[in-house]
Design a protein that fits this description.
The complex is a heterodimer of chains A (317) and B (262).
Chain A lengths: L9 H18 L1 H5 L1 H16 L8 H29 L10 H13 L2 H33 L1 H16 L6 H8 L3 H25 L3 H10 L4 H37 L9 H10 L3 H33 L4
Chain B lengths: L3 E2 L14 E8 L9 E8 L4 E5 L6 H8 L7 E5 L6 E3 L11 H11 L5 H14 L15 H14 L4 E5 L7 H18 L2 E6 L2 H7 L2 E5 L6 E7 L10 H19 L4
Helix pairs in contact in B: 2-3, 2-4, 3-4, 6-7
Classes of the chains: A mainly alpha (317), B alpha/beta (262).
């Protein structure tokens, strides 16, 4: 349509084209002789030069390297604490020294209380978190994938996320009584919004390019979700899970500290509340350390390696 | 001088067999908005290598999306008689959570190929075709830009389409790598007999590769001009004939662009 007709200039152009062909031919006499070989070798050379050499550091060295800054920081905190204790600014029962807390911790362990408490709390936390996962993941997918759902439920989720989950303890207690189900309710209300929001942001971060590629490869509907959307959203999802665990653990401890009953048994929250009731500051510090230790351990043993593995496989670390 | 034979487009080839047939294709993104594409008539013959050339805003990528069925035209018809057209993007379109081989495997699987071992063999064969034997388990981030694009090419070939659409696939590569990939692409095109629609804004690249160069105008995108490139392969970007035709096409392109400055 828009192109010119070359009818008039036919012969002249043809002659010129022939000349150009000859020119093109003579321009690379060597190229025609062994083009495949040359191309293959040049390509192999380029590949060799461009190849990234991955620097593998041994696992032990990596762990040591990442461990010593926090160890140093902890040592520093202990030193400051010991100094404050020795300075006698506050009486012993207000600020016990590190050694007193350590003794209290040891006593809790030797009495068997510590393991029982950690066991109960971790069990409640794990069950609550697993349930949050099962509910939060599809909820996040719904909110992330469907505009009307997002418009309606999205703001509620963000709102819930900003609500301190300790606020749920009184209504949960009234509804369920001092049963484990009450703990789970508080954990769910704390962790589900967090996990769902993590899924949504994971989905939002998926480059649209991947979805287009997937569609072109023939992935539509559920296949697109399974082969493209979910794997692409995985890093954001894992970050959401990590945050979800933090919320679950916090909510659980809030509930455990406030509510005690025979059905709930000895928990870390119980240990802490018990220390308060007997005005045992060293015991309270010991309980806090246990709570902290569980939180940090789960993070470092479960979530950090998982996230690292996923990110590393994608070249994002 | 010119190495091109300019011909009338459209009417004469409509009845012939085509790998891609665009008839009066228009695309407007918003109601009442300015059209991005307007009245595009373009046929690509089976096994033909066509380069689409144009300045920004000519809707080159939009046109490829229409041919790839990732978007619907606002007017006219897009016909790809052989079914789906394979599409290859500028960069990083490999899935980073899959190895090079698994990327190809996914394309085979989504095409409906069953049999894990058969797919593996096919993927290995395709990797060998783009001279990446042994790269099956490599992650995309472990490969160079040029190697990634070759894997992407292998994945596109795995779709077993008769039409390969390429959206500025080498734009992000350095000159030497691009040069090598030009040669590689021509080699693959000659062995596979695919029809290729190659979008670029690089005039020399278009002349280096295409049997036909189609110049699109901008805002709206229309077929402004086209050239048949009668320079035999293997060509080089440095060839005088390539350079001369590039000058001629660039002049047209500049005229096209100047219209918007007035």
């Amino acid at each position: 349509m828009a192109a010119e007709t070359a009818a008039g200039a036919g012969t002249a152009e043809a002659a010129e084209a022939a000349a150009a062909m000859e020119l093109a031919g003579t321009a690379k006499p060597a190229g025609t002789a062994e083009p495949a070989d040359t191309l293959a070798t040049v390509e192999a050379g380029l590949d060799a030069l461009d190849a990234t050499t991955e620097h593998e550091v041994s696992r032990l060295i990596r762990i040591l390297r990442s461990a010593y800054p926090p160890i140093l920081a902890i040592a520093l905190i202990l030193a400051v604490w010991q100094a404050l204790y020795l300075a006698k600014i506050w009486p012993d029962w207000k600020l016990p020294g590190p050694s007193e807390v350590f003794t209290s911790l040891k006593a809790t362990f030797s009495g068997g209380d510590a393991w029982t408490a950690v066991g109960h709390s971790v069990e409640h936390g794990a069950v609550g978190f697993a349930a949050s996962l099962v509910i939060g993941t599809p909820l996040g997918l719904l909110v992330g994938r469907f505009k009307p759902v997002r418009a309606g439920v999205g703001p509620i989720l963000s709102g819930l996320q900003s609500l301190p989950s300790v606020a749920w303890v009184p209504p949960a207690l009234m509804f369920f009584g001092p049963q484990p189900s009450m703990l789970y309710a508080v954990v769910l209300l704390g962790a589900v919004p967090s996990i769902a929001v993590g899924v949504v942001s994971g989905l939002d971060q998926v480059p649209p390019m991947y979805l287009r590629v997937g569609r072109n490869l023939g992935a539509r509907g559920l296949a697109s979700v399974r082969y493209v959307l979910l794997p692409a959203a995985l890093p954001g999802y894992l970050a959401g899970l990590r945050q979800g665990w933090a919320f679950a653990w916090r909510s659980l401890l809030a509930a455990e500290i406030i509510v005690q009953s025979a059905q709930l048994g000895h928990s870390l929250g119980f240990l802490l509340k018990n220390a308060q009731d007997s005005n045992d500051m060293a015991g309270a510090f010991a309980a806090i350390m246990l709570i902290l230790a569980v939180g940090v351990t789960v993070n470092q043993v479960l979530f950090v390696p998982l996230e690292r593995r996923v990110l590393k496989a994608r070249g994002l670390v | 001088m010119t190495a091109a034979v300019e011909t009338e487009t459209g009417s004469t080839t409509v009845t012939a067999e085509a790998a891609v047939r665009l008839t009066k294709v228009g695309k407007t993104f918003r109601d009442g908005g300015a059209p991005v594409l307007e009245g595009i008539d373009l046929n690509v013959a089976p096994g033909e290598f066509v380069c689409l050339l144009g300045a920004s805003g000519c809707g080159k990528s939009t046109l490829l999306n229409l041919i790839a069925d990732l978007d619907k035209p606002s007017g006219g018809t897009v016909d790809v008689p052989s079914g789906r057209a394979a599409l290859m993007f500028q960069e990083s379109a490999l899935f980073p959570w899959l190895s090079a081989g698994a990327n190809i495997d996914l394309a085979l699987r989504l095409r409906g190929r069953s049999g894990k071992r058969e797919r593996r063999a096919e993927a290995e064969r395709l990797l060998e075709l783009v001279r990446l034997r042994g790269a099956y388990d490599k992650r995309p981030h472990q490969l160079s830009g040029g190697m990634r694009q070759r894997v992407a090419l292998a994945r596109a070939l795995a779709q077993d389409s008769k039409v390969l659409l390429m959206d500025e696939p080498f734009a992000a590569l350095d000159a030497i790598t691009r040069d090598v990939l030009h040669e590689e692409l021509i080699r693959l095109w000659e062995t596979t007999g695919l029809a290729v629609v190659f979008v670029t804004h690089n005039v020399r690249e278009a002349v280096r590769l295409g049997q036909r160069v189609v110049l699109l105008s901008s805002r709206p995108g229309r077929v402004a001009h086209e050239w048949y490139v009668d320079i035999p392969q293997p060509r080089r970007v440095e060839d005088k004939a390539v350079a001369d035709l590039s000058v001629e096409i660039t002049d047209h392109l500049r005229q096209e662009i100047s219209r918007h400055g007035r």
